Here is the input.
Amino acid sequence: MSDLSGRTTIVVGASRGLGHGIAAAFAEAGAPVVAVSRTAGEFAAPANGEGGIRVELADAGDASVAGRLLDLHEPANVILVAGANPHMRPLQHHTWESFSANWESDVRITFHWLREILLTPLRPGARVVVVSSGAALAGSPLSGGYAGAKATQRFITGYAQDEAQRAGLDITFSTVLPRMTPVTELGRSAARAYAARNGQSQEEYLQQMGPVLTPEIAGNAMVDLVRSQATEVAPGYLLTGAGLKKLG
Here is the structure.
């Protein structure tokens, strides 16, 4: 698994933020990358690796997209990062539509892609990583149903691993839960909202979060995870500016 050349990696939600960094890191590591997003992202040519990035413009939540792209590209690795940015407001100021936005986006994407991965199925030795959120552990009182949706992504990933084992499929599924980071649009809006709620400046709020998680750190962590022996991969990880930490 240390050699990623010839092992196509699909990154869903690759146009910006952590997804962009993950796509770039896999290309630098030599993997052919398929960057899936609804809007086109710009990628620099890999400086050291032999991999390249092919952009696929598609709505990852469309029920037909996952099967089509899996059949077309036959990936060895799939990284799901896509999701909606939640509206940051107290519970009583949400509508059902704003409260449930991440269920209709993040959970829907995870369901469609993991279902198709099991049905296809991916080739033996394939790796699947679902990027959830640290909010799945700590909650997120200003983002409606976001934390519950992110926790459900983790449950679905565990269900997929169980079904793969029951079917004798050599596919490894894992969930990664990134901590809030101000380098993404979602993280910036959340930091502003929670700092105001706590009567702090945004800088004061972020200082207590520890080292900043960047797209580059996220990308390198994902490459290391996919390169690990399957027997060493945990069902879940917390991702911070210090890297990955296995969850119990």
